[in-house]
Q: What sequence folds into this?
């Protein structure tokens, strides 16, 4: 059987173009429909669902606020609660003064005793007064303070525990020497939020290494003369 194509080429191209046109219109219509559906869902979500959710939240807040305000003396309760919450920070800001005695026992030479200690935790200064057998021991005491370092459980890098250590006054008697040493200390050694370890030079035997560390403190003594 013989078939003849009686349509001219122009007609064939026109039909093909119409098919492509319909396909493009169909795809565009589908895309537009999907985009409109997404827009419609977003519009409903923003203008209805979210507004309803916000309204519900506002109602919950108003209800809870009214319940709290109905509690007797709620202002006093909240004030006490705030004060309790601040206790931790206040405690952390208080210097660990209980470390002072062990520190002095670690750095004081065995031949020296202490009669008075003045500590200013605001200026981080300290004055140590006492007596010893000779000026040599006083100098050893000063050197021990100068070269004592410390480390903490958070920082293993040694740092100077005491600085600006000076012999502010002394007096020589027949059997003893009285002294006053002034210094500045690193406030970190009294920080009660960290554990501190003093590293005392081993060249001097200190009170903490003797059998009678309790003899560290003695009553103040009278001096016959004072030198600088």
A:
């Amino acid at each position: 059987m013989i078939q003849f194509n009686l349509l001219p080429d122009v007609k064939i191209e026109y039909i093909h173009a119409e098919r492509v046109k319909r396909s493009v219109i169909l795809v565009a219509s589908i895309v537009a429909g999907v985009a409109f559906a997404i827009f419609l869902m977003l519009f409903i979500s923003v203008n209805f669902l979210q507004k309803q959710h916000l309204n519900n939240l506002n109602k919950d807040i108003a209800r809870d606020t009214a319940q709290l305000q109905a509690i007797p003396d709620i202002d006093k309760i909240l004030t006490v609660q705030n004060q309790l919450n601040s206790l931790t920070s206040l405690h952390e800001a208080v210097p660990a003064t209980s470390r002072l005695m062990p520190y002095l026992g670690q750095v004081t030479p065995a031949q020296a005793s202490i009669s008075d200690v003045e500590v200013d935790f605001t200026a981080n200064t300290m004055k140590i007064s006492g007596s010893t057998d000779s000026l040599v021991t006083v100098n050893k005491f000063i050197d021990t303070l100068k070269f004592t370092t410390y480390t903490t459980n958070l920082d293993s890098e040694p740092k100077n525990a005491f600085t600006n250590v000076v012999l502010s006054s002394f007096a020589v008697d027949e059997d003893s020497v009285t002294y006053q040493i002034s210094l500045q200390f690193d406030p970190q050694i009294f920080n009660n939020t960290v554990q501190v370890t003093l590293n005392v030079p081993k060249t001097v035997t200190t009170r903490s290494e003797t059998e009678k560390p309790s003899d560290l403190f003695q009553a103040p003594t009278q001096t016959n003369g004072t030198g600088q």
User: Anything to note?
Assistant: The first strand starts at residue 113 and ends at 120. Residues 1-70 form one domain. The chain has two domains: 1-70, 98-216. Strands lie at 113-120, 125-132, 149-152, 159-160, 162-172, 177-185, 196-199.
